[in-house]
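Reminder to self: tokens first, then the designed residues, so the page reads top to bottom the way the pipeline ran.
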């Protein structure tokens, strides 16, 4: 269960906590969920260090894991005032009034490099640079990846990526496979990209025919697999996204095997998606 605190100032927060502490709801429940959420509407000028002190206070009060106590802002706050390395998870919500771009997001992740997962709910029309700090986060969800999915295809250094509403091309898939063959993505475990519905047909339509050119790759070979098998998915992304039951069914997938170390990965490709699973 989630408990919400609408906070307009430090004093109002303490008052809300005191009321909740004395309420029948709290006395009837053992507070072990570790999933408290308080919504902050502090002015942008509010010192973030004060917010961090409040966060620590609540964690101690409710004896909950600090990593499981998110703080939600209704605006893009001055993240530079947060202590470097103090954020381990982040979700950027879809606020149509927000004017932030990928450059702002880049500064945030450079200042908070210890994050285990990053979730971006909103769309960015600006172009993402190839050295963006987001590319190094272990688990990444981009809900509206659009044309910027290409940057992740070619430069992602994390372990698990989920990219929705993407603009995927045959060329970028082949470039991605070449990079994996050349061991330029050694951290990669899974890469799941869903084609935007606008590109299901026409020149951007995906199919296994796209991989025929891959047979000429140096250093790898393609193999058809005809036995039942399921990929064991182990990523924090599962806490933020519900996959369809057949997502990790690789029974009908096409395998690519590197010659250098016999590392095997399964490719699943249809008009709606491209998926890549590296076997341990």
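Designed residues (280 positions):
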């Amino acid at each position: 269960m989630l408990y919400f605190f609408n906070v307009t100032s430090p004093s109002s927060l303490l008052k809300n906590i005191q009321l909740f502490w004395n309420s029948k709801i709290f006395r009837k429940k053992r507070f072990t969920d570790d999933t408290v959420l308080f919504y902050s509407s502090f002015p942008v000028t509010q010192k973030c260090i004060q917010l961090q002190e409040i966060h620590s206070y609540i964690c101690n009060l409710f004896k909950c894991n600090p990593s499981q106590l998110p703080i939600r802002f209704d605006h893009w706050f001055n993240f530079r005032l947060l202590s470097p390395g103090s954020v381990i998870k982040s979700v950027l919500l879809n606020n149509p009034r927000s004017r932030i771009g990928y450059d702002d997001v880049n500064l945030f992740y450079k200042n908070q490099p210890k994050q285990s997962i990053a979730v971006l709910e909103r769309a960015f029309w600006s172009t993402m640079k190839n050295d963006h700090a987001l590319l190094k986060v272990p688990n990444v969800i981009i809900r509206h990846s659009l044309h910027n999915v290409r940057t992740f295809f070619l430069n992602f250094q994390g372990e698990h990526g989920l990219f929705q509403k993407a603009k995927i091309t045959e060329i970028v898939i082949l470039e991605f496979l070449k990079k994996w063959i050349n061991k330029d993505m050694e951290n990669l475990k899974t890469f799941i990209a869903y084609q935007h519905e606008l590109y299901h047909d026409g020149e951007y339509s995906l199919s296994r025919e796209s991989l025929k050119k891959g047979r000429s790759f140096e250093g790898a070979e393609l193999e058809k697999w005809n036995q039942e098998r399921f990929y064991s998915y182990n990523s924090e992304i599962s806490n933020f996204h519900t996959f369809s039951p057949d997502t990790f069914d690789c029974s009908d997938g096409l395998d690519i095997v590197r010659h250098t170390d016999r590392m095997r990965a399964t490719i699943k490709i249809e008009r709606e998606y491209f998926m890549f699973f590296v076997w341990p």
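The mean pLDDT is 79.
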